[in-house]
Amino acid sequence: MRGLAILCAIVVGGILLWGSTDFPAWGRLDSPASVNLSDQYIEHAFEETHVPNLVSAILADYRNYDTMFETTVVFTACTAIFLILRLPLGPLARHRNTTHVQAARQRLPRDPILEMACRVLFPPTHLFGLYVLTHGHYSPGGGFQAGVILGASFILLAIGFDLRAILARFPEGLFVPMTALGVLLYIGTGVLCLVLGGNFLDYEALRVLAPGISKEMIRSHGILIVESGVTLTVGSVIFAIYANLVSRGNQMEGL
Amino acid sequence: MSDQLIILVIVWPLLTGVVTSLLPANKRLMTLWGSLNLVALNGLAAALLLRVVSQGTLIYTVSGWNRDPADALSLGIELKANIFCGFLSCLIAAVALVGFLGGVCTWDRQVGHRLPHFLALFFLLVAAFQGLCLSNDAFNLYVMLEISSLATYGLIAFGGGRAYLATFHYIVMGTIGASFYLIGVGYLYIKTGTLNITDLADSIASQQLSKAFVLALAFLVTGLLLKMAVFPLHFWLPNAYTYAPDATSVLVAPLSTKLAVFLMFRILDDLFIGVIPKSLVSWSWAVVFLASFGILAGTSLSLAQRDLKKIFSCLIVAEAGYMLGGLWLSDSRGTIGALFHLVNDAVATLALFLVVIAVQQSVGGRNLHDVKGLFQRSPLTVLALILVSFNLIGVPPSAGFFSKATLLTGAVASGHYQFVVALLLASLGNLVIFFRIIEVAYFNPIVAEEGESALSLDGQRAGALAAAVAASLYLIGLSSYNIMETFIKPVVSL
Q1: Do the domain assignments include residue A121?
Q2: Residues of A in contact with B120 (CB under 8 A)
Q3: Taking the alpha carbons of B311, B313, B314, B320 in that order, is the dihedral positive or negative?
Q4: Which residues in chain A have their CB less than 8 angstroms from residue B146's CB?
Q5: CA nearest B2 in A: which residue?
Q6: Domain residues for A196?
Q7: Among the four residues A143, B5, B137, B161, which has the most C-beta atoms within 10 Å?
């Protein structure tokens, strides 16, 4: 069976390689991928959106509808994991508390060096996450990356201390709704554009709310709004998935 | 304003899904909230269909990036609703509403306190189905496939127990299918430099058909064959659909594989429009052969099962073969038959899975020996079963008769006699499958035991719903000529 699988992979890979001999030469200027749309984006993206980072402009403006659904994918994954893993807080909870106390007794003593290191790292990580979000217009970065950094900062604390200590400050009642609120911010921006008379997610329609801003700048601001939604969702989803996976869904005791 | 209908049809269930996850797990509230939103969705989809019927194909540019006038390539993402997309969108909305209402009675047993998250995935799945139906962008279609798969995985795995392993198989196969689709899209992008389906079709038609295009088509088709669960690639489907919660399977089973069929139709008909008849005749023969084999295999698999839900799940495998074969017959009647069969099969599968809920609620099991005395307990359920079985066997004037007749005409005209034989044998097989169930349900009366005399109201309701859906198959059958002429023929080229 294993041999068969390897054989399949080799055959499919071989077919793909064989097909790739038909591609235009690597990096050629006259290949279809470089002449048709790319030129449009490269030449006009800055004038049209005032966003120097081409990737952000395409991701969050030209193809923002895709990005909305990519954010929804992240949300869907989180909801699915929550649906399957999260245990009920019903009559079983008391029983689990006792096992939790037993587990706590067996736990290793806390490590002050590790805790201090996490404590020191946490604020800069957060700041860096926000920087990546807001500077996504100018440099590599954006909502997804910022969300991952923010989520990772909470995971760092959860590893350095323990899950319960973090959940006391960043409880489930906060981060689970946050996963939905990020997506809602994104979709809500789209619906707002629609209500204000534009097409869905056409940021230009938002000018009604901010008359002094040029139609290019409003696109730039629109990108920031939806990217914030992405950050909110991705950051909380990453932590929610971590919290449910490491504690087998009871959110009592982490790693 | 009516232009915005197309995006509303997608965004409405999406918003509903996200908001649902924030609501409390109150059954009454959820029933009201869900049915109101789905009724609104039905209204929107109907309005979209009216708009498309009266004013022709609607093309909508999300985020307002209209086509560049210079070389007329689409910068942003387009949505497109032609007359069949509008019809399919209505069908999705209707199936979602009926499936939702049919699933309500199983919540207590199978969903419980996880209701908000369960329904959130349910609505996200509806949004993804609508997106698959209306998108005009090859990559956006992939994103929609991704959401629909992820939501389906979650909804199926929630069944617990054996559903976990079934979901794992589904995840592996589904991921391979999606990656194949993505590789195909990637190859097309390298050769054409665009993702918009209209532009892609223009670009493909203007270029020489080289091996990269053939490979792209092969990968797209293989990926979708996995999603459609055609015979050798089907093994994930029966278990996944059987062990899923009933409220899941009643939405997933009617629509999931059918939308993969619709995607394949779009790839063949919209994308490779000028290419198919010329150079792929040699292939199409092999695909039709695969489809014929799949029909027979699905029917025989179904014959071997004793669990009602598994019997019906295996039938889905067989039905996928009907539509696949129809699309590849290289005869326009085959394509028309396949699309009409898609509509017919979505409704028939919905009725079958409603029957499963009714049986489960009224007799507490869904094995073949559990349906003993079903006729006494829930005559409407048996009526629904009989009506659907006539449809699947192909008795006039059911929709199944007309779809099979169209498929057969196409098969004979294009000389694919093995497909004709497979269709006829499968009809015979369906006769045996359903007669087995109906025989047990009708002729094996149950000896009344104490405490069992009380009829389950939920079961009766689900049975009535199933009978209504099954009866609508005959309405579809009687108006089959109109449906084919108005909604299907205008979109089929060849």
Answers
A1: yes
A2: 79
A3: positive
A4: 73
A5: A199
A6: 46-85+106-246
A7: A143
- Rounded to two decimals, the pTM is 0.94
Q: Which of B22, B113, B212 has its CB closest to that of A19?
A: B212
Mean confidence (pLDDT) of chain A: 84
- What total number of domains does chain A contain? 1
Residue A32 lies in a domain: no
Is the CB of A64 less than 8 angstroms away from the CB of B62?
yes
Residue B14: inside a domain, yes or no? Answer: no
Nearest CB to B75 within list A37, A69, A180: A37
Residues A116-125: tens digit of each pLDDT:
998 999 999 9
- Has residue B129 been placed in a domain? no
- What are the tens digits of pLDDT across the range B382-425? 899 999 999 999 888 899 999 999 999 999 998 889 999 999 99
Find out whether B33 and A206 touch, Cβ atoms under 8 Å. no
- Best mutation target among A23, A49, A66 (most B Cβ atoms within 10 Å) is A66
**Out of B32-41, B62-71, B145-154, B167-176, least confident range:** B62-71
Give B247→chain A minimum CA distance, Å. 14
Number of alpha carbons in the 13 Å side-chain half-sphere of residue B313: 25
**Residues with Cβ within 8 Å of residue B48, at least 6 apart in sequence:** B5, B6, B9, B58, B81, B86, B89, B90
Rounded Cα distance, B315 and B425, in Å = 13
| Cβ–Cβ gap B62/A184 under 8 Å | no
Range of the domain at B424: 280-494
Which of B424, B429, B447, B313 is closest to B373 using CA atoms? B447
A180 lies in a domain? yes
Residue B416 in domain: yes
Which of chain B's residues have a Cβ under 8 Å away from the Cβ of A174? none
A155-178 per-position pLDDT tens digit: 998 888 878 878 888 888 888 899
What DSSP designation does B207 have? S
Domain membership flag for residue B436: yes
Q: How many domains does chain B have?
A: 1
